[in-house]
Amino acid sequence: MSTKRIQVALAGASGYTGMETLRYLQYHPVFEVVRVYGNQSAGNTLDSIYPAYAGVYDMTILPLDDIALENADAVILALPHGRSAAAVYKLLQAGYKGKIIDIGSDFRLKTSEDYLNWYNLKHPHPELLDRFSYGLPEFNRFALRGSDYVANPGCFATAIQLGLLPLAINALTSTVHITGITGSSGSGASASPTTHFSTRTSNLKAYKVFRHQHLGEVGQQLGILAEKNVSVAFTPVSGPFVRGIWMTLSGELNQTCDLSEIFESVYYNAPMVRLRSELPELKTVAGSAFADIGWQQDADNFTIGVAIDNMGKGAAGQMIQNLNLMFDLPEETGLLHSGNIL
Q: What is the pLDDT of residue 1?
């Protein structure tokens, strides 16, 4: 018996996140891409921007201004700060009745004040913030199932929460020191000094120490889910590779416990989280939608390791996981494939 295809449209097709979204959608047994939108890329074919899609997607990118005419079952937004909110407003003003998922940052935070504080940008449509559910499936899947509007978490925020929330929810620690090394694709497709090969290769560089914008949503979710405040000291680092986030979270437990029991009880029914017997490696998740988590415990001291692909579980892969839930599909549909073996 054939399965009815669910039609989806994508805004922001020419960016790295949009490109990765198309890569995941080509494998999906239910979702079907029917239209793609862009700004400066409008009028170009997909394969003229990303030749790997020749023979896969025969589509021309439409102007983003035309998105108000969209009638697909779902719209996926992979747009820069501030652009997604404008697109959602246009869609709703035009009477759009389908589902919307934003991979960008516009609907992750619940207040316009927090958005201004963390993104240094006035939110274009704060009246829409309450409509969106926060899309971290491992901790919010019941609210996401059947939801019409979902905000995809940030890549660093995803990795931090997957490692930290099992401890925070159980009130096991009060201070955590975090270091996360990210690949150059996290900076997007536009060229900049931070993504220049000569600057990035053979180099490590810390940036936005204690002030990375993803900490806003981490603090928000800790406040919602945890029973006590947790102090997070986060150092993001630019790494000399393209894909992935490799992160360690270290601290001291405030009561005796077995981390193995904690993580196994939290993630026993989480198909996109793989618990490892040692700290994970980046290569095992690159190109996939999995998150690998491992830990070391020495009495009350702990180090937790989290590895994700910043464009997979940190963006497009997690978006597919959320979109599956929005359409009442098994959350792992179309996602159970490995990344790059070599």
A: 40
Q: Residue 160: pLDDT above 90?
A: yes
**For range 63-79, the mean pLDDT:** 97
Domain boundary (66, 97, 131) is at 131
119 inside domain: yes
Instruction: Give tens-digit pLDDT for 253-282.
Output: 988 899 999 999 999 999 999 999 999 999
Neighbouring-strand partners of residue 180: 236, 247
pLDDT of residue 329: 98
Residue 290 phi, psi dihedral angles, 5° rounding:
-85, 155
CA-based max dimension of the chain: 61
Determine the structural domain holding residue 39 and report its residue range.
Answer: 6-131
Residue 67 has pLDDT above 80, yes or no: yes
87 with 185, same domain? no
Whether 257 sits among the annotated catalytic residues: the reply is: no
Q: Determine the Cα–Cα distance for residues 188 and 192; give it in Å rounded to an integer.
A: 9
Is 211 within a domain? Answer: yes
Over residues 81-106, the mean pLDDT reads: 97
pTM of the entire predicted model: 0.95
Of 19, 46, 61, 155, the catalytic one is 155
With contact defined as beta carbons under 8 Å apart, do 293 and 276 qualify? yes
Question: Does a structural domain hold residue 224?
Answer: yes
Q: Residue 204: which H helix or E strand, with range?
A: none
Same domain, 107 and 176: no
- Written in H, E and C, the secondary structure of 40-74 is CCCCCEHHHHCHHHCCCCCCECEEHHHHHHCCCCE
